[in-house]
Amino acid sequence: MISGTDPRKRWTEDPSEPEIPLLGGDVTEGVVRVADTVRRPMGPNSAFIHALLRHLEEFGFEGAPRYLGIDSAGREVLTFVEGEVAGRPHPAWIADEGRLASVGRLLRGYDDAAAAFVVPAGVELVLPSDPPGLPPAPAYPDELIGHLDITPENVVFRDASACALIDFDLVRTATRVDELYNAMLWWAPLNEPEDVDPGLRGLDAPRRCRILADAYGMSDRDRGRLVEVAVLRTRRSWHLMKHRAAVDGGGWQRMWDEGVGEIIKRREAWLERNGTAIETALTAP
Question: How many structural domains is the chain composed of?
Answer without folding.
Answer: 2
